[in-house]
Amino acid sequence: MSFRITYSVLDADLSALHARFDEALAAARAGLGAELPSWIAGEAYRGGVLLESRNPARPDELLASFHRTPATELDRVVRVAREAQRGWGATDWRERARILRRAADLISERRWELAARMTLEVGKSRLESLGDVEEAADLFRYYAGQLEDAEGFSRPMARLSPNEDTRSVLRPYGVFAVISPFNFPLALAAGMSAGALLGGNTVILKPSEEAPWCAEGLYHALVDAGLPPGVFQVVHGDGESLGAALVRHPGVDGVSFTGSKAVGMDLHRELSTGRVRPCFLELGGKNPAIVCRDADLEAAIEGCFRSAFGLSGQKCSALSRVYVQEAVLNDFLDGLVAKARAAVVGDPSLASVFTGPVINESSVRRFERAVDEARRDGVVRAGGERLRLDGPLARGHFVAPTVVELSHSHRLMREELFLPFVGVTSFRTLEEALRLANDCEYGLTAGIFSRDADTVERFMAQAEAGVLYANRRTGATTGAWPGVQSFCGWKGSGASGKGGCGPYYVSQFMREQAQTRMG
């Protein structure tokens, strides 16, 4: 291929890509049904109690079964991590960066296999899955570059006397728990883990119970790159029991988590008892786009469509709210409704499909409740139904991309749904649009479409979100990439103030120490 797969690919010759992806899918399907372990101390752990990974497009299709790690094993897991951290933390920073760069190369080499697994396990389209895999590799490379550019985060300080030498150094905390979500099962697990590992910490990864297969690929890339045993362990189980027990363990020195605001706030409270431990949270969003009367409507419609319905709306950066200036409301709605109705929904392993399933039956029920409310209190302009497909897809978790007109004050315009569901309402003035866009407990991403430079600059100065886009046809509020857009949640969308994909990420996983040596 003569181009890179990111989340912003619109126009390219994809024939060779699809041929390679078909081969990878065939290979992945040939290995379905395997029984796979958790990974503790560099060895496979098999306890006999299994977690099943199933295809959300074909729930009858068992992808693999994973041996759960019981909470009673966590003492050993944490002890192994602590012992391994002594050696890993003392490893020269250049070697840590070298290993992570090698792991990035292995992920890129294995991208077809990893992306095929992801499409089957999470329901991502081909391009979404390949973008996720390449983002994981780029996060490793970008974060390794931060460590290298800072020369291991050691810098000289001023002197109070001629015979003293003082340096500020960043040192690891120790053991990090990484709790990763299903929707970016490789990129987010890789990014959070890389920050901790490059900082000299060891990592215990608890991946989403909806996406354990993707975590298997991350583990092997790191181990095959030369990561010592015990530095990176993978434990399987559900969040309410195993994840909660891991976070509560007194031997865990910090937590990095991506998921819901409610769970994240519980984690933050837990990490603030006894002693304050670092807790890095990315907690979702209710992301707005503003469409002004002078916008390129074709670009606005395309950008809003891609951001609202890519990965079935199951992105923390997904577009949830659109504020459209009254003069162009009808034209915008007509265009967005037409694209939503024309979207091909089905098995995401097929090249023709744009929108795959939502992750599970619980998500379908949440969708149905939201649609009932929208019909009662607003107007459903497109979608609004569960889709019953034929054959092996008959029990799949498919719902239609849905466009509704709702007032700004409605619950569905304020609470994160994590669904292919977007609300649209009108505004008169830019001041009103900015007020409505900012009137939200979340602040992750936001976008605007306007040809007026002053309007765009006012949006950039006043929008209350960590990631802002203007006139982005490839995604009104989505598509951040390592080293291109920092991905930082404001307000209820995050906790650290320094986001993933950005230049300040790795240093968060380390604590400062002043070292003075007298001559």
Concise overview:
The chain is α/β, with parallel strands linked by helices. The chain folds into 2 domains: about 280 residues, Aldehyde Dehydrogenase, Chain A, domain 1, CATH 3.40.605.10; about 200 residues, Aldehyde Dehydrogenase, Chain A, domain 2 (3-Layer(aba) Sandwich). It has 14 helices and 22 strands.
Structural description of this entry:
The structure is a single chain. The chain contains 14 helices and 22 strands. It is of the alpha/beta class. The strands form 6 sheets. Strands 15-16-17-14-13-19-20 form a 7-stranded mixed beta sheet, with helices on both faces. The protein has a 5-stranded parallel beta sheet with strand order 10-9-8-11-12, sandwiched between helices. The chain folds into 2 domains: 27-283 and 497-518, Aldehyde Dehydrogenase, Chain A, domain 1 (3-Layer(aba) Sandwich); 287-485, Aldehyde Dehydrogenase, Chain A, domain 2 (3-Layer(aba) Sandwich). 38% of the residues lie in helices and 21% in strands. It is globular, with a radius of gyration of 23 Å.
Stated plainly, the CATH topology of the largest domain is called: Aldehyde Dehydrogenase, Chain A, domain 1
The overall number of domains is 2
Q: Please tally the helical runs, counting DSSP H or I stretches of 4 or more residues.
A: 14
CATH class of the largest domain: Alpha Beta
Q: Outline the low-pLDDT stretches.
A: none
Large-scale geometry: globular
Please state roughly what percent of the residues sit in beta strands, choosing from under 5%, 5-15%, 15-25%, 25-35%, 35-45% or over 45%. Answer: 15-25%
Task: Note the gap between the termini.
Answer: 58 Å
The mean pLDDT is 96
Helix content: 25-40%
Main β sheet profile: 7 strands, mixed
